[in-house]
């Protein structure tokens, strides 16, 4: 782990440091607005993109690039590495993972140091921003972990807040969550979580909770969705056994996300439609999908991706074993075995999160499943950002995320054009690889 310790220290220092101007030329840009070759981008010392463009036969593109460089203090003729020649590599926005639990043997529930390690494990694979998913635990532990995320957000732009996957889940669809900690979301518990997050709904102050998964069929499920939504949280329908009408009611009450479609929920049935059609037909809902070929096999990934164009967000649901060898791991207090990269609970064989990165999800989509590069990148960038309004100026990130365009954050991935491996990565103008 010596090398990884050094990587963690370097990534953590970069993300706590100051942004620097970035200038990249000669790239093949791929984002939700399309593909373009000969592309260039320039960002400033705030970590914000100030200009973009493409090479033109008459030389005007080069002139515009040089002018943009000078406005941010970069000498376009410098040979000291200030200007990066992409040499045809793929340029995408940084990936945004809104549902992941950890990496590199650490979970986001493991305190400040655990967050640093797990975030580095995802950052070096192109995930420049992340919502930190916290698992089901006793309420005091959940609230402690919420407060830890809140404190980390103050020093790092890459942490978008937390996602609470539990404890308000259906026992029948609990997956790898501790059944002894599951609860009905009575108003007092919701207030306790919001207080830990720093939210003050009466004053219009957002806390650090971005998302919470709730089974809407629980006695207080719909009421809790309304309560969280009123506080600026985006509730998600998932880990549920809800019928179609109840899922609809959840979305009408304010739920804006479906937690990992197909997993931990009643599936598609021609006489019992369940929650999936309710999410698919509602244009307000962003639908998570784990594209690892294991949680959801390839034919269903293709089917699911086509059900709701521009609303499918690739997520990893990654646990501590991500980017690690097979072996024994923990998910909270539960024992997990990872065999062939697949995590299952020792107790009952239930799938216990994934070992996926968004880098691999995008690679699979393009190179194995034949998705268009634009659609695959959109699912890992603009769509998850839009789920929380981060595709426009907002009080959490300030600068919008998800596109390579003037006014957007300088979250940039330079990828190998053959296998789509992330080679160079910037988050808000801070180079992490």
UniProtKB/TrEMBL annotation:
Cofactor: a divalent metal cation
Cofactor binding, note field: Binds 1 divalent metal cation per subunit.
UniProt cross-references to InterPro entries, sorted A to Z: Amidohydro-rel, GlcNAc_6-P_deAcase, Metal-dep_hydrolase_composite, Metal_Hydrolase
Binding-site list for Zn(2+): 165, 239, 260
Domain Amidohydrolase-related: start-end pairs: 90-417
GO terms under biological process: N-acetylglucosamine catabolic process
GO molecular function terms attached to this record: metal ion binding; N-acetylglucosamine-6-phosphate deacetylase activity
Catalytic residues of the enzyme: 317
Assigned keywords, A-Z: Carbohydrate metabolism, Hydrolase, Metal-binding
Residues holding substrate: 176, 263-264, 271, 295, 351-353
Family the entry assigns: Belongs to the metallo-dependent hydrolases superfamily. NagA family.
Protein's recorded name: N-acetylglucosamine-6-phosphate deacetylase
Organism: Bifidobacterium moraviense
